[in-house]
Fold this protein.
Amino acid sequence: MEKYRIGMIGAGVTGTPLLRQLLDAPFVEMVGVADLDLRLPGITLARERGVPVTSNFIEIAEQGDQVDIIIDVTGSRKVREDLRRFMQFSGNTHTVIVHERIALLMMSLGAGKQVETQHEEMGY
């Protein structure tokens, strides 16, 4: 069985619990985790599990079709816009970007209750 190759942008309050679930899934290969603050618990967890970390989320997107899914849980309009723009101009039609709302839905289904975000804005 092929593993889902996943990159995550955002390793804070929203990203860390999802990252933990992804790291524990035998069918997931984490290819990178990005956050501006490399001292966050999610970054520490990624490092402990041997996942590459970076403060530049574009480094994850630059892996091209070696990444199946990029999960954006930053809540940042600029990150969303920059990521979308990079993906359009790179010609990468393989990688799927998962918005924070979908990540929250996945986490809520797993928890059996609605998981809330700490982010004000959820537009995409």
Observations:
- The mean pLDDT is 91.
- The two ends are 32 Å apart (CA to CA).
